[in-house]
Amino acid sequence: MLNFFRKKDTDKKFTDIVNKYREPVYWFIRRRVISHDDADDVTQEVFIRIYKSLDTLKDASAEKAWIYRIATNECNRFLTRKYQSTELTEDITNSLMEGEYIDYDEEMQIKFQKALNTLSERQRNVFELRYYEEMSYEQISEVMNSDVSTLKATYYVAKQKITDYILNK
Question: How far apart are CA 163 and CA 62, in angstroms?
Fold first, then answer.
């Protein structure tokens, strides 16, 4: 009988998480993998992992960081499987140019996306969590298992690389 109530609580908690995070997690992933179909697949895998390990989430205040850590790891896992590391930037840029991800009449948007693709995996993760997800450095530190000062430096370098790319390409 106790297992029934635990399962019911887990199902409710999971439903609440899906309702709250489905769209932002999808867009976080979509910015990384570009393709809608790939983003759907990775998003589904993220929520499967969340469901399977929901009982490990003890601190509700750490929920967002925990979810984005799973999403970040799944993106990295997917990209590693799909692309050889030397081909990654070129293949993602080609996918970007072939897809419906951005408005091609907006030259700046294209440059910005290409600039993101020049960042290292770590720089891109930090930049996207800070810029798009508007996470504090403390939250990002929970996602990335890194100290705040290192993350601030990483974000600064990522911003500089993006600026340099946009101004010089």
Answer: 32
Contact 79, 88 (CB under 8 A): yes
Instruction: Single out the residue of 10, 19, 15, 28 nearest to residue 70, CA to CA.
Output: 28
Average pLDDT value over all residues in the chain:
84
pLDDT digits (tens, 9 = 90+) for 22-64: 999 999 999 888 889 999 999 999 999 999 998 888 887 889 9
Residues 92, 116 contacting (CB under 8 angstroms): no
Specify the DSSP class assigned to residue 103.
Answer: -
Quote the tokens at residue 104: 């091609």
Contact 27, 132 (CB under 8 A): yes
> How far apart (Å, rounded) are the C-alpha atoms in residues 45 and 79?
13
DSSP 8-state code for residue 60: G
How many whole angstroms separate alpha carbon 36 and alpha carbon 27? 9
Nearest to 25 by CA among 141, 132, 103: 132
